[in-house]
Amino acid sequence: MEERSKQILSDYKVSITNPRILVLEALLEIKSPITVDELQSKLKNKVAKSTLYRVLNDLKKIDILNEFTSPENTVVVELVLEGDQHHHHLFCSDCGEIIDVELSKNFEDLLDKEIKKIEKKFNFIIQDHRVEMFGQCTDQCENCKK
Amino acid sequence: MEERSKQILSDYKVSITNPRILVLEALLEIKSPITVDELQSKLKNKVAKSTLYRVLNDLKKIDILNEFTSPENTVVVELVLEGDQHHHHLFCSDCGEIIDVELSKNFEDLLDKEIKKIEKKFNFIIQDHRVEMFGQCTDQCENCKK
DNA sequence: AGAATAAATGAGAATTATTCTCATTTTTTT
DNA sequence: AAAAAAATGAGAATAATTCTCATTTATTCT
User: Fold this and answer.
1) How much is the pLDDT for A74?
2) With a CB-CB cutoff of 8 Å, which residues 19-38 of chain B face chain A?
3) B 45-104, residues with C-beta < 7 Å of strand C
4) CB-based contact (8 Å) between B103 and chain A?
5) Could you tell me the end-to-end alpha-carbon distance of chain A, in angstroms, rounded to an integer?
6) Domain spans of chain B, in order of start
7) How close is the nearest chain B Cα to the Cα of A7, in Å?
8) Is B28 exposed, middle or buried (0-12, 13-18, 19+ CB in 10 A)?
């Protein structure tokens, strides 16, 4: 993962430093949404907290970090690399798990149409959208391992 | 608005106090998303900050307050009373305005179907969903008054 | 209505998340 | 390899939210 991380940094023309490599490695390894605290402990203090926040802001700036908040308003981040599939999120209020969800192509097309209508109606240019779903996993849920 | 506020508190069986009435009045008056800070200044220190947060939590508990975050992760609240139309949000990154948006009945039906598929696939019970749209108002936008 | 009980409030302290400062270290440029 | 530029770590500063506790206000029970 180290080579991959270096490649990414190089591709986006940001200088290659150890903290950045470590953060990218961690994000590449999990490849699913994670809170800043979880990320911090995954990094085991190999990166200072202030640096972690700075690196996350760097990744946002080059547009490969998606940031949003959980239903409890905790900030959650995930790496989104070019070519990654557009997806949404499903939040379990029981275990706090956040699951990546892809909606059908057909549905996304309809959403795009709906968004075009909204753009006209409100005189907006809309670049991005998010669908968030909230609920609970049932006792068979693999993700929550209940 | 005072009577209306008292009625709401009484309906939901929470005790009728001045801070609660004042917060409800403010939320009823604007009836669109507002940050805690904006709400605080609208209330002109007639309600202590700690009390404001407490009252907001009370309203969440009785399920008439919708809380989410702006793209900059600022908490935003809005009153959602029974019978209010289900709606979503459109965020302008230029002026910060948050606009209530209703999607077509047809689209919501399709979203519900899509959600049913997700429930099956992930063994979830989904109670709620949100569609958020991000963009900029153009120069004719009424809301942003550019 | 009035006393007793329970709940809510205000003020500020405590906590948490994030940003900022600045001296030192690391990376990039030349 | 030296000079210049950028990034880092440690902790201070800031901001948002919750907590504490003495006082006030609302509700309940005669």
Assistant:
1) 96
2) none
3) 46-51, 54-55, 58, 73
4) yes
5) 31
6) 1-82, 85-146
7) 29
8) middle
Task: State whether residue B20 is helix, strand or coil.
Answer: helix
Return the pLDDT at B119. Answer: 96
Q: What is the CATH number of domain B1-82?
A: 1.10.10.10
Q: Which residues of A touch B138 (CB under 8 A)?
A: 123-125
Nucleotide showing the shortest C1' distance to residue B74 CA: D16
How far apart are alpha carbons B127 and A26 in whole angstroms? Answer: 32
pLDDT for residue A19 is more than 70:
yes
> Is the pLDDT reported for residue A145 higher than 50?
yes
- Percent of chain B predicted with pLDDT > 90: 85
Please give the average per-residue pLDDT across A127-144, as a whole number: 82
Q: In what order do the strands lie in the sheet with A124-137?
A: A98-101, A88-92, A124-137, B124-137, B88-92, B98-101
Positions 44-83 of A with beta carbon below 7 A from strand C are 49-50, 53, 57, 74-75
Fold of A1-83: Arc Repressor Mutant, subunit A (1.10.10)
Q: Which two tokens stand for residue A18?
A: 């150890």
Q: Residue A141: is its pLDDT beyond 70?
A: no
B65-121, pLDDT tens digit by residue? 999 999 999 999 999 999 999 999 999 998 889 999 999 999 999 999 999 999 999
Q: For strand D, is any atom closer than 7 Å to the CB of A14? A: yes
pLDDT in tens, A77-94: 999 999 999 999 999 998
Tokens of B122: 């992930």
Please report, rounded to whole angstroms, the spatial distance between the CA atom of protein residue B74 and the C1' atom of nucleotide D15: 11
Q: Domain B85-146 adopts which CATH fold?
A: Dna Ligase; domain 1 (3.30.1490)
